[in-house]
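Example S7 (structure tokens).
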């Protein structure tokens, strides 16, 4: 069976599954729409959380970042997984004990202020909309290859699928759909990785293949071979690349960690379990399910880079190796050219593909002596690496079809969670919480569905002109969540002296400083790739990139909130008791009557 037909069958079957689940689990109340009736088993919630979490950035972009940034891209692995440890220990059980539907609702009640709730809604929407842009990009990339059409057409098709099952099912439908999507995406990610690891190293476990020896008899390790290939073409040694400075890598990791713990669409997943202890258990299970993909990603990224370089390699030309005749380019190369995500320009008219680092003066001079006039691979969108990897490695068509389905599952699952967070903030926090507290449950549910439809339309509109590749956009979303929501939640749970004035000004200051820094450097950040290649602007504060600045914004938030609280009135007595009650385990002191 040809690839196109097989892909239609596999992807079509998964879509029918998602829609069928949404119909079966259709939300009939606001409780089911917002938090799935608080009846999801912790293991199932852990799997759904993993799918909600492992977005297009994890499935599609992260391996692409690792492929082109080497060791430097480890900030994403460390930051994103470390954030779940913070979430499990510091936030999830306490927020579940508080028992509300949304993050802004908790902030509004803890800081006894509708203004604080409104500021939290604005922060939530800014972070979630920024994050969802990345998911729209992932949907467009995967769909464009699957339909062999333009990115724009693929994006519209993806929006339609999200609309059907997210608007219909709410959190209840999304939860069970995400469980199915996790199974699809993890199979799609690990099966090709096993094949490729076997091809390159003879080891079926990609994690071991990454540190093992090549199967070509060269005696080189896999990483040694990759270092050799990239340095011959003038690129930095793969295993020694960093993102800017070491300080930038540290702050970047911290920003991703606390941003993870502050993302509303992840936090609300812990509102769906029956008991407080189930929230902590869910976070543990989520880490297990996430680790399966995250320990595989470094192997996928590095092997994808090696396969890409060796595909173009036809033998030495002087000391350079990338000099493939365009007429002999493999079919995968021409397939991805159709999407516009891979582009070749014959700059010297010799009909060959010269691929090298023309920004390296030594390599550029050497290439000019061969009559080359610049690297002719003028565009290699990093987001294609995972999806193209099976084609590059000549894997069977059914593997390629599963990868396409997995990429779509990853993007769709997170998009749905983000859109639900946005819709819940609009319908529950703004409409019910501020505008019309007496709205009926039926009308609130209708408002939730309308809000969801509006959020999908907005996300699609922004997806047509994404500011950067998926993981780049997502990094800014983490910074916004880190600088605004995470500090407010931490102080709301662990510092009973922080009052409403402090919380409000803390959130405004944190997110304000972060956004100001990002937009001040938008010319640096929004040029695709520049902020991820280790390039540093002399205008960056202490060499900290805009993507990493969320941790600095969080520090500003903490300092401003605590300082303002000390200069204003303490929170009311009942609020301070509320904070203490949140932290006391249920049943504590029962044996001693204390």
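Recovered sequence:
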């Amino acid at each position: 069976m040809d690839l196109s037909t097989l892909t239609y069958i596999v992807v079509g079957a998964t879509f029918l599954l998602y829609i069928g689940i949404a119909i079966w689990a259709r939300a009939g109340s606001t409780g089911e729409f917002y938090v799935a009736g608080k009846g999801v088993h912790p293991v199932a919630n852990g799997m759904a959380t993993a799918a909600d979490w492992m977005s297009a950035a994890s499935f599609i972009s992260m391996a692409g970042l690792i492929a082109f940034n080497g060791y430097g891209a480890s900030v994403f692995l460390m930051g994103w997984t470390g954030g779940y440890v913070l979430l499990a220990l510091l936030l999830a059980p306490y927020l579940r004990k508080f028992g509300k539907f949304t993050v802004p609702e908790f902030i509004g009640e803890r800081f006894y202020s509708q203004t604080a709730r409104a500021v939290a809604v604005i922060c939530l929407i800014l972070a979630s909309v920024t994050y969802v842009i990345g998911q729209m990009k992932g949907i467009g990339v995967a769909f464009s290859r699957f339909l062999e059409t333009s990115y724009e057409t693929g994006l519209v098709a993806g929006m339609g699928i999200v609309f059907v099952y997210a608007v219909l099912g709410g959190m209840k439908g999304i939860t069970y759909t995400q469980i199915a999507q996790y199974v699809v995406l993890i199979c799609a990610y690990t099966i090709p990785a096993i094949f490729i690891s076997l091809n390159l190293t003879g080891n079926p476990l990609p994690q071991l293949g990454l540190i093992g020896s090549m199967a070509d008899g060269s005696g080189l390790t896999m990483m040694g071979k990759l270092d050799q290939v990239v340095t011959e073409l003038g690129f930095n040694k793969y295993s020694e690349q960093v993102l800017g400075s070491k300080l930038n890598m540290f702050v970047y990791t911290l920003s991703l960690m606390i941003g993870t713990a502050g993302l509303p669409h992840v936090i609300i997943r812990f509102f769906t379990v029956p008991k407080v202890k189930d929230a902590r258990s869910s976070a543990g299970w989520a880490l297990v399910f996430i680790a399966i993909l995250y320990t595989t990603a470094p192997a996928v990224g590095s092997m994808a880079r090696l396969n890409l370089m060796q595909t173009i390699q036809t033998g030495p030309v002087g000391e350079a190796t990338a000099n493939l005749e365009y007429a002999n380019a493999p079919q995968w190369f021409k397939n991805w050219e159709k999407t516009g995500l891979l582009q070749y320009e014959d700059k010297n008219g010799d009909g060959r593909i010269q691929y090298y680092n023309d920004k390296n003066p030594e390599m550029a001079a050497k290439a000019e002596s061969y009559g080359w006039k610049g690297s002719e691979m003028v565009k290699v969108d990093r987001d294609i690496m995972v999806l193209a990897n099976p084609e590059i490695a000549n894997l069977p068509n059914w593997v390629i079809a599963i990868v396409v389905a997995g990429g779509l599952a990853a993007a769709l699952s997170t998009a749905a969670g983000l859109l639900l967070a946005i819709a819940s903030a609009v319908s529950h926090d703004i409409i019910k919480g501020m505008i019309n507290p007496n709205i009926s449950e039926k009308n609130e549910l209708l408002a939730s569905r309308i809000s969801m439809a509006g959020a999908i339309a907005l996300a699609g509109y922004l997806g047509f002109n994404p500011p950067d590749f998926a993981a780049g956009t997502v990094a800014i979303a983490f910074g916004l969540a880190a600088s605004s929501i995470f500090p407010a939640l931490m102080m709301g749970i662990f510092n009973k002296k922080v009052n409403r004035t402090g919380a409000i000004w803390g959130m405004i200051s944190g997110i304000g400083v972060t956004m100001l820094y990002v937009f001040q450097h938008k010319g640096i950040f929004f040029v695709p790739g520049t902020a991820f290649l280790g390039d540093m602007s002399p205008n960056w504060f202490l060499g900290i990139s805009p993507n990493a600045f969320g941790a600095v914004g969080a520090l500003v938030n903490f300092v401003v909130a605590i300082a303002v609280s000390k200069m204003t009135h303490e929170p009311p007595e009942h609020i301070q008791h509320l904070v203490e009650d949140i932290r006391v385990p249920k049943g504590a002191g029962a044996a001693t009557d204390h």
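Notes on this example. Residues 3-254+269-299+393-474 form a domain with the Sodium/glucose cotransporter fold (CATH 1.20.1730.10).
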